[in-house]
């Protein structure tokens, strides 16, 4: 059907034929250039990406195009009736009557221009839409800096009539509202409503609708001019009988308009997974393009959406749980935390909470990816390596006693958290109860360099070397992100097999061996043993769940980081609590900081899903073991069934001799602090000892063990810097910084032996 380029009238036949020929040529070009309504809607690009949960729910709206602010495509039903009427009254009164071009308005405009009179513009909404449509063949319709030329205006008129015949009126109005620029970078009614008015477009009232309509005509005008034009729109709405505008007037419209034009309520990011959304888009590598078209808005419009692996119910629960527990810890100088949940089988991220949000002064810092000291959470990998290398078994006896390990910087003297030593304990007890000294002794067997390489195989991004960290690596002196640490624990859950985490639904993960499967199973069995952790955590620990789980806590230097990482049959959960600023927490331990959060999330995951212990892999042997007597004549530990790597099993674990060079029956071991039968002298600490307080333990909780040999039953006392401080062949001293002279004296004050020591780091001076 041929479009009308001019009204019917008594113009000359020659002029009409020439115009008709031009119209035919333009109509042919325009017909090829103009897209359909469905094509325009499908090609619409929001300036933001919607991150969807695995259930299809929107979790996060994230701005990914900084050049423009364009919201989601809205159907006409999602735009308030007030705005629709205001726009038509302001821009195109006869919109529903004309065929794309308002020839009456064109005639009035032409007559006004002839007599230099100001008249209402003749451009219709349909003509304006034609100029907004994108496409390689539609560039000639767009307005340039100096306005449209005569051919462009003619082409615009032809395009408007083509659109009017191809599209319905509601489609024209809907497309116009989504494509029209309003002010500055704002394009489309969704972005305008959320930016200037802080609400959805369907909730705009008559005043807001009038301001929005005024901005179409003058998008970058001063607030006063916009207010005057909005006032005119309000009056037109009143005359047209709009119910909401009957009582409306222009009072205070200046202030309202000024406030609206200054507001920027449409945040760049909104939702419950901001840190995960940014990481997902970084991983996808498509922050400015559509990754998938698997979602649709209510009107069927495809939007820029990314389907993720997050579970919406779990993410909400995790955010709420973390926030609630942090509120309880605020009195202990704790304001930050992070949490991640992984699916054991696929590596999919099911929950990711990067910070405590409004509770934090560094809410943008992603605690899931931040480098922090892991403390004792590295110990499971150390014992697994020692077991895999057949240096230890779960029943092997390790001496928890004062140790003095020579290093390039002096003697390294580790301490336990509770400032007490347990004597001979099994490796099972040492790991489950998180004893520091046995861990350091185990690292002496494995060597820091070998352990460093093992951690690298487990995916921990350590950048230095084993020699750089030294023996403190056993106690977590390195820095690792929560995500990588949790995925390394997931490798324990998968029999020592490691695969990358997945942020979007993917195919079957590619596993690589990172740790011996038998050693991983034994470590998991130890970390699930509530009885083995009793010595440190008690019988009613929050770590004890009603279903099978394996878990380890950790605390880093000066109480700066607190961790709980563990797994069940299906999930691995990692929690970090601390301060993004690095400030120390006050009186927060592994069971009061991260562990309650871990336990609650794990409990929610298994509220209706069972968790069973894994099956042992081939090559393991289970055997009954018993332990020899300790100092009091009672067995060191109770008899039990124990798991062994094939070929390392034995039935009895005992100490051959307590008088000289104690060692464990069947497994070679040494005691770095074994007393010797010599003349009265100081056995520990050695002269020249440099005591560096352990980073895992608050200074007030650390004591240095003094041991004297060859004294028999004689009464001896300890004198420090000339002042009597303690008595007995063994005595625990609460150190304070400085260089000290330690003397062993008899009952008459005669000096039997003396050593010089130095204490470095914060300390608490004992009362005199």
TrEMBL record:
Residue stretches making up the Penicillin-binding C-terminal domain: 677-757
A cellular component term, taken from the record's GO annotations: outer membrane-bounded periplasmic space
Gene3D superfamilies, per database record: Biosynthetic peptidoglycan transglycosylase-like, DD-peptidase/beta-lactamase superfamily
Record's protein name: peptidoglycan glycosyltransferase
Keywords linked to the UniProt accession: Carboxypeptidase, Glycosyltransferase, Hydrolase, Multifunctional enzyme, Protease, Signal, Transferase
Coiled-coil residue windows: none
Signal peptide: 1-33
A GO molecular-function annotation: penicillin binding
Biological process per Gene Ontology, one example term: proteolysis
PANTHER family the UniProt entry points to: BINDING PROTEIN TRANSPEPTIDASE, PUTATIVE-RELATED, PENICILLIN-BINDING PROTEIN 1C
Pathway: Cell wall biogenesis; peptidoglycan biosynthesis
Every Penicillin-binding protein transpeptidase domain range: 338-597
EC numbers: 2.4.99.28
InterPro entries assigned to the protein according to its UniProt record, in alphabetical order: Beta-lactam/transpept-like, Glyco_trans_51, Glycosyltr_51/Transpeptidase, Lysozyme-like_dom_sf, PBP_1c, PBP_C, PBP_transglycosylase, PCN-bd_Tpept
